[in-house]
């Protein structure tokens, strides 16, 4: 796999950092997740392919364990607000002095500097401060966040992953690691570069929800079907729009011009009435195999059974029969080989990892007795 031989230390946190660690693990990195004492499970559910070590970083001897671990690692991932790692004597100055090749990934909502840097927040707050939230929503309604995907995972976890890959590549030339300041606000804003770069192109002249790409156009939105399902329509180009009109049983010469904005509301009502007369399956029979850019809105239950996804093996099933998306993108020579084993229990690998670091059995027992580490082994009921 592409990241075979790379060791990553991930400090347990909420979803963005675990997602970043999972992507790295999926593509071959050895990821050790450092969990806090008292933690009983990984709330993110993104522990695939990782091992778990429980250590109390607030205690000096616990911090010393992490320093020892990072001395042999390629990447450290930390999810805390600025200053937390420094107070624990685990900042980049200390860790990179011991290991100059260490790539120190800092993933936070507002970044390592600025007046909001130490403030609490979540996806919707980062989305708001990036400017993107102001552009999402129906006409006449409040802006709304499209799940916690854009900032947490797109502008956060995935952008941090890209930074780590670039830093690993740069290290092949300089031999040195570097600090990655991954701000979810800035990552989300960067994702929206198209919106910024097209402001003078006329795409966003109308109020929110009334533009071509934000739900205002009748040919770029969703419609309810007779059985309560939905169809997604994205027929932007004239030749695709013509196929849409044909599939709906209409005649283009009897309709307003596709780009007549004043007629869009009435055209949306007309299209909605037509879509409501057939089921989702019936519309699929009409549009599948055409270039009308009309597709079913699949539920999680439906998506794994869809023919195209089955053709590509786009979803995988683990040993506990849990289904999830296959890692993307698909590399031709070194594709990801995600673990299909169950997720690790918190602290399941504490003893194993400490032994790999050179701790003796006596030292491990003492660390456990002193509540520096926790060991949770899998119990077998006979």
UniProtKB/TrEMBL annotation:
It comes from the Eukaryota. Residues 325-344 are annotated as: Disordered. Keywords: Isomerase. SUPFAM superfamilies: CoA-transferase family III (CaiB/BaiF). The keyword ATP-binding does not apply. One of its GO terms (biological process) is bile acid metabolic process. One of its GO terms (molecular function) is alpha-methylacyl-CoA racemase activity. It catalyses: a (2S)-2-methylacyl-CoA = a (2R)-2-methylacyl-CoA; (25R)-3alpha,7alpha,12alpha-trihydroxy-5beta-cholestan-26-oyl-CoA = (25S)-3alpha,7alpha,12alpha-trihydroxy-5beta-cholestan-26-oyl-CoA; (2R,6)-dimethylheptanoyl-CoA = (2S,6)-dimethylheptanoyl-CoA. Pathway: Lipid metabolism; bile acid biosynthesis; Lipid metabolism; fatty acid metabolism. GO terms for cellular component: mitochondrion; peroxisome; plasma membrane. Its EC number is 5.1.99.4. The keyword Ribonucleoprotein does not apply. It is an enzyme of class 5 (isomerase). Belongs to the CoA-transferase III family. PANTHER family: ALPHA-METHYLACYL-COA RACEMASE, SUCCINYL-COA--D-CITRAMALATE COA-TRANSFERASE. Catalyzes the interconversion of (R)- and (S)-stereoisomers of alpha-methyl-branched-chain fatty acyl-CoA esters. Acts only on coenzyme A thioesters, not on free fatty acids, and accepts as substrates a wide range of alpha-methylacyl-CoAs, including pristanoyl-CoA, trihydroxycoprostanoyl-CoA (an intermediate in bile acid synthesis), and arylpropionic acids like the anti-inflammatory drug ibuprofen (2-(4-isobutylphenyl)propionic acid) but neither 3-methyl-branched nor linear-chain acyl-CoAs. This is Alpha-methylacyl-CoA racemase. It comes from Capra hircus.
């Amino acid at each position: 796999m592409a990241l075979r031989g790379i060791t990553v230390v991930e400090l347990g946190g909420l979803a963005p950092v675990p997602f970043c660690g999972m992507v790295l693990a999926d593509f071959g990195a050895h990821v050790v997740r450092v969990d806090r004492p008292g933690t009983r499970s990984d709330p993110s559910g993104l522990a695939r392919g990782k091992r778990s070590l429980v250590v109390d970083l607030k205690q000096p001897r616990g911090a010393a364990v992490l320093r020892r671990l990072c001395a042999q690692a390629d990447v450290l991932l930390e999810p805390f607000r600025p200053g937390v790692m420094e107070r624990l004597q685990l900042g980049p100055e200390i860790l990179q002095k011991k290991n100059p090749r260490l790539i120190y990934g800092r993933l936070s909502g507002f970044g390592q500097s600025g007046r909001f840097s130490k403030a609490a927040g979540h996806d919707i707050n980062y989305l708001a401060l990036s400017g993107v939230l102001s552009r999402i929503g129906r006409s006449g309604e409040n802006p709304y966040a499209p799940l916690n995907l854009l900032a947490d995972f797109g502008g956060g976890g995935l952008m941090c992953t890209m930074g780590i890959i670039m830093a690993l590549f740069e290290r092949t030339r300089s031999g040195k690691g570097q600090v990655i300041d991954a701000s979810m606000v800035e990552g989300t804003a960067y994702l929206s570069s198209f919106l910024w770069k097209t402001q003078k192109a006329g795409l966003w002249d109308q109020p929110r929800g009334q533009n071509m790409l934000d739900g205002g156009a009748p040919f770029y939105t969703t419609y309810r079907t007779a059985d309560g399902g939905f169809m997604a329509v994205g027929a932007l180009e004239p030749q695709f729009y013509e196929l849409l009109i044909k599939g709906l049983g209409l005649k283009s010469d009897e309709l307003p011009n596709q780009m007549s904005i004043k007629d869009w509301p009435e055209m949306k009502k007309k299209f909605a009435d037509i879509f409501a007369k057939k089921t989702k399956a019936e519309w699929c029979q009409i549009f599948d195999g055409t270039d009308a850019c009309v597709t079913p809105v699949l539920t999680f239950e439906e998506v794994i059974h869809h023919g195209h996804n089955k053709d590509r093996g786009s979803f995988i099933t683990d040993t506990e029969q849990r289904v999830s998306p296959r890692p993307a993108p698909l590399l031709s020579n070194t594709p990801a080989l995600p673990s299909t084993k169950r997720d690790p229990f918190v602290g399941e690998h504490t003893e194993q990892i400490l032994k790999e670091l050179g701790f003796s059995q006596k030292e491990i027992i003492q660390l456990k007795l002193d509540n520096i580490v926790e060991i949770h082994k899998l119990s077998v009921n006979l």
